[in-house]
Specification:
10 helices, 7-stranded parallel β-sheet, two-stranded parallel ribbon, single chain, Rossmann fold
């Protein structure tokens, strides 16, 4: 059996063990979607699955994978097939960044960002898209406001999110008329574990105005279900994305660099 032919139709959410992904899982479950959750932290995934089951919904399938590893997509698709699940909605949410100058940060840590935010998202999408087309499902890719500008002080992360914005727009266009929509969720600063993993100073991170993961996830859910091409949660973030194309890089790049370097632990 392939993942496309399984009888249990699920919304697959990557990076569901915390932050935006966990809140997306809660919202999808609340709205009657059967779920498959993926991340590295087994205990946190199981706790979330139990929380959702306690609300009277079917217990989500839980798959533990390090999606930054090259075989993970193939292994995950095989796990789904073994569980008799087919993916109707794919939520590519797992991601991380590292704060600091590219030449000073750990090289493997930075190529790992590309592996997770770009390679894994692309591989999973290409593997699962035929099955999603067959059931006229949906794809939600989590990018960032960072996808709309270069990010000195967090260079690799910003570049990976530019890829996600571009890939989502292009794939959405290619799938027009197929019944499948591709939505790109572009949050700005959101209070999650993201900042700690990125190596940001907790005091600096706490001082930045941020949205809650739940508010971002709610916007994302509404957007994907409405088949919107792009969702930018929050007025400030919408404003930033609207004016960024008109700000010259000469002015923008030193500003972003100073902002990112100030946030470093
Ligand atoms: N927070 C923000 O300010 C912000 C802003 C814009 C965009 N975003 C984007 O939003 C998405 C979710 O981030 P978040 O803010 O919710 O951060 P988070 O709280 O750190 O959650 C990240 C999720 O990704 C999972 N993950 C990380 N590395 C993984 C790996 N190698 N394999 C599998 N799963 C992995 C984590 O689970 P495990 O650790 O258990 O694996 C966790 O479930 C990311 O794509 C991020 O780039 C965040």
């Amino acid at each position: 059996m392939t993942a496309e032919t399984g009888s249990r139709r699920v919304t697959l959410i990557t990076g569901a063990s915390g932050g935006i992904g966990a809140d997306l899982a809660r919202i999808f479950a609340r709205n009657g979607h059967d779920l498959a959750l993926v991340a590295r932290s087994r205990d946190r995934l199981n706790a979330l699955a139990a929380e959702i089951e306690a609300t009277g919904r079917p217990r989500p399938l839980v798959f533990v994978h390090d999606l930054a590893s090259p075989m993970s997509s193939e292994d995950l698709v095989s796990d789904l097939a073994m569980a008799g699940a087919s993916v109707e909605i794919l939520v590519n949410n797992a991601g991380y960044g590292l704060n600091g100058a590219a030449l000073e940060l750990d090289r493997a840590g930075q190529t790992g960002i590309v592996d997770l935010n770009v390679r894994s998202l692309t591989d999973l999408t290409l593997r699962l898209a035929p099955g999603i087309v067959a059931v006229r499902g949906k794809i939600l890719n989590v990018a960032s406001v960072a996808g709309f500008l270069p990010g000195p002080g967090m260079a690799v992360y910003y570049a990976t999110k530019a890829f996600v914005v571009s890939f989502s727009d292009a794939l959405g266009q290619e799938l027009r008329g197929s019944g499948v929509t591709v939505t790109c969720l572009c949050p700005g600063f959101t209070a999650t574990d993201f900042q700690a993993r990125a190596g940001m100073d907790p005091k600096m991170a706490a001082a930045v105005p941020s949205m809650s993961a739940m508010a971002v996830a709610e916007d994302g859910y509404r957007g994907v279900m409405a088949g919107r091409r792009r969702v930018v949660p929050g007025l400030m973030n919408k404003f930033a994305v609207a004016i960024l194309p008109f700000v010259p890089n000469l002015a923008l790049l030193p500003l972003i660099q100073a902002m990112q370097m100030r946030r470093r632990s």
